[in-house]
Amino acid sequence: AAQSLQVVLKKQPRYPEAWYLLGLTQEKQGNFAQAIQSLQKAIEQSPKEPKFHKALGWIYLKAGMVHQAITSLETCLQLNPTPEDKRQLQATLKDLKAKLPAKKGKY
Question: Most exposed: 36, 66, 67, 104, by fewest CB within 10 Å?
Answer without folding.
Answer: 104
